[in-house]
Amino acid sequence: MFMMKNLLLVLPLLGGFAPLAATVSLKSRATGFQLVTNKQLEGSKLNSNCQQLLQQTIQCDEFVANFRERGYRGSLDSPALTDSVCQATCERSLLNTRRRLAAVCASTPDMIPGYPVATLIETTLAGWDETCLKDKDTGKYCNDIIDAFEDYDSLEAMPDAQLCSYCYGAKLRIMQQSPYSAYDELFAQALETVNKRCNVKGPTDTLSPPINVNVTRPSVCTSKQTYSTRNGDTCDSIALANSVSAASLFFLNPNLLDCSSVPAGLELCLPEKCSELYKVQSKDEDCVVIGVRYGTSWAKLVKWNLALKDDCRNIYSTEPFWGRVICVSQPGGEYTDPGSPGTTPGNGDIGGEGGSGDGYANQVVPPPDGAKVAKGTTNNCGKYIQAEKGIRCPSLLAKRAMPMDLFLKINPSLGSVAECDSKIVPGLWYCLNPVHGWDQVRV
Fold first, then answer.
1. Where would one find coiled-coil regions in this protein (predicted)?
2. Cα 173 from Cα 175, distance rounded (Å)
3. How far apart are CA 188 and CA 205, in angstroms?
């Protein structure tokens, strides 16, 4: 079944998660976030004023920080949260930051060569605009209206009352107007149908974001490990036999033209080995789910598997086909960071969504008043979260910088990764971010 509303709700750039933030008590939410962290500015050639501006607090609900990553924005499933996100003061703060960045960062416009500073604020604004779009007659949020539409087998079966509604068309048009949205060929086809059926004129073409990071292959085989291909080899078979990523194998070897049938006699440079491999099973899988499952982030999956695009959209590769086997642990082994003087681990938010931060908070806080905390959950906790009905553990962590393995350790009642979905209890509160040393001293 096509399920038309799912074109706008279940085809986001990185998958269709219910936002975690909808399950976090609004009483405990922070106001304000920074576009970048100190760590993200390391090695940057931005001028000092530009760097300072990027680290100033934007006066928005902390959930808006999720919009820094390009992706589809659907209903937040919480009127209170959406109202908090969509405050006029937030829009003013975002627009003011955009204006100041354009002026202050003019002399050093790129974070790194090919990645404009403007991308950070423009992507955030695009996400805010999509989330906060309202119906011009009822004043209701368009995402909630679209979410309530019935499912249909095709666009053609969708009634005019829905297809030609203000919200349906406006949502597609607002996405089309920004090169920083998740608007792609599928959404373009939907907008073309809307324009034709509803007698509307307007552009439907896709816009590419002005990002052109030059990633080059190394001139030498840095692993110093090579492999001579044999009859019957594929990129996946070579990857599995040598504990390497097929995506990185393809990227490092421009003489690999067909990963499904590798000719014998090629001399290939092998990537660094990794301790854990995963074979992507279907086009319905995405990097966020895989990352959470293995206690890491989609951003790290991109880093560890060199043929993956920055948005991780080609995790199930087709053109070009590099195979299905990826590293889900760091190639070459894990690096233990000894820490830097004068820095703190943050509030579990370092590095973006999908478990890419360290998962730790800075200080212990008590549970919310009247909260019933799950049995065995650590009270050395800096932030709690309440489970809602129907929530799944991967979805719970997908928008937070919290590794799955740590989450299960601090909430032992959830059992293993396989048991977590069945053991999580709606209404109970769980620790989201413990403090360092949580398992050594009880408070």
1. none
2. 5
3. 6
Angle between helices 118-132 and 166-176 (to 10 degrees): 180
**Residue 267 near residue 241 (C-beta atoms within 8 A):** no
Q: What is the pLDDT of residue 358?
A: 60
Which pair of structure tokens corresponds to residue 391? 């929530």
Which residue carries 């999720």 as its tokens? 66
| Contact present, 39 and 66 (Cβ < 8 Å) | no
Q: How far apart are CA 393 and CA 287, in angstroms?
A: 15
CA-wise closest residue to 126 among 158, 95, 159: 95
| Helix H or strand E segment including 131 | helix 118-132
Q: What's residue 212's pLDDT?
A: 57
Whether 127 and 115 have beta carbons less than 8 Å apart is answered as no
pLDDT attached to residue 292: 75
CB 18 within 8 A of CB 391: yes
The predicted structure's pLDDT at residue 29: 53
Which two three-digit tokens encode residue 316? 């199930």
According to DSSP, residue 151 is labeled P
Residues of the chain with pLDDT under 50: 1-6, 9-28, 214, 335-357, 443
Report the candidate in 376, 345, 399 with the shortest Cα–Cα distance to residue 67: 399
Note the pLDDT tens digit of each residue in 325-356: 999 988 986 533 333 333 333 334 433 333 33
Show Cβ contacts of residue 237 under 8 Å, excluding neighbours closer than 6 positions: none
Pair of tokens at residue 94: 């975002």
- pLDDT of amino acid 217: 59
What local confidence, expressed as pLDDT, does residue 170 receive?
94
Place of tokens 């052109």: 212
> Any bridge partners for residue 385, and if so which?
430
* Domain locations along the chain: 5-197, 226-327, 346-443
Whole-model pTM: value is: 0.50
Using alpha carbons, select from 145, 181, 193 the residue that is nearest to residue 165: 145
* Angle ∠(193,197,199) on CA atoms, nearest 5: 110
Burial 294-313, CB ≥16 within 10 A → b, else e: bbbbbbbbbebbbbbeebbe
C-alpha span between 407 and 413 (Å, rounded): 11
Tokens of 82: 């959406």
Q: Measure the CA angle with vertex 332, ends 331 and 334; round to 5°.
A: 85
